[in-house]
Design a protein that fits this description.
single chain; 359 residues; alpha/beta; Rossmann fold; two-stranded parallel sheet; 12 helices; 13 strands; 42% helix; globular; binds nicotinamide-adenine-dinucleotide; binds thymidine-5'-diphosphate
Length: 359
Amino acid sequence: MKTILVTGGAGFIGSNFIRFIFNKHPDYKIINIDALTYAGNLENLKDIPDNPNYIFIKADIRDRVKINEIFSSYNIDNVVNFAAESHVDRSIVEPEIFLTTNVLGTQVMLDTAKKYWNVNPCDKYSKEYKPEVKFLQVSTDEVYGALGLKGMFVETTSLMPNSPYSASKASADMIVRAYYKTFGMPINITRCSNNYGPYQFPEKLIPLMINNCLKNKDLPVYGDGMQIRDWLYVYDHCSAIDSVLHKGLIGEVYNIGGNNEKTNMDIVKLIVKTIGKSQSLIKYVKDRPGHDRRYAIDNAKITTQLGWRPQYTFEQGIKETIKWYLNNTQWIENIASGNYNKYYNKMYSNVCVDIKDIE
Ligand code: NAD
Ligand code: TYD
């Protein structure tokens, strides 16, 4: 029995991870802390049954006092740090919150975990930690920057982030690494490719295109639509994190991906065809500044060293995802009835956007 502190558990991947853990390890305790930003939604967890092993606390990872209080109240074994500002387009408009949450918030989590986990917290030379504790930082392949037509990211590829989002995630990775090197903190970092699946906020490519198709709205494709992403079904990301949490060697970085490279245009056309709409909805729009051309993950380390394998092919995963959105139109309606429409109209018009106006 473990107690896992999940941050950002009301978001897309965090909520899927909580569901995954309760299915796989029903005796584990999960404390989910989330600030419930525009991307956090407790509806994502409404199917988690009333369970004494599940606790939700509304908290901001930047709030040192609150995080300290949580660590002092519970005997936490592991932290899985999902909490982040996660959308590249928003980071282009309003970078600052990406730095405060993704970098400083991570540092608050590390500092507090170190204080409660280190056996001699007052000794700056002590590298002795309680048994079995681990801090798992959920990072992204975007920290490596963009690839040309050939090659794949391996764990030793240099970090060359191009957007404020990816730069903030790379900075967080560096601070996590520094806590390992300087303080001996037991950590892992995972760097996963683009996820898709149920409960993804409809500002990201796949749910945005599904939602727009359902509403017969234009499908905005940035630039020439030939950018390539390496897609992974969210369930497989969760199972990979579970493998790293239980089997990952301390201090190691693990790339996560399923070898599913697709152009954006191929994805959009597939969604249009599956939902039975007209290709005439597809519209080319102005490209995203600093748009990374291609991502591709070499997953040899996690597959050979930890025995992880993705279970879903892209064809299965996308079918499940579209089916889920078609069966959960109310979930999307509840989001769209909030500030989402305001966000959408401003983000996809060519006016100057201040994200504070659309939160
Ligand atoms: P998301 O935006 O859907 O969820 C983020 C969650 O974090 C939300 O519930 C939000 O309320 C919460 N949050 C934001 N700021 C917070 C703060 N200051 N304190 C506490 N909670 C806060 O994001 P996601 O797609 O689920 O991504 C989760 C993590 O996985 C992120 O760290 C992201 O960088 C990483 N990641 C995402 C992908 C992807 O394709 N979505 C791929 C690789 C890695
Ligand atoms: P996104 O889902 O925002 O993920 P990321 O930028 O983290 O990879 O975008 C995936 C790809 O889809 C990316 O190349 C940008 C492109 N895209 C569009 O063409 N149109 C859109 O409306 C969105 C949101 C993304």
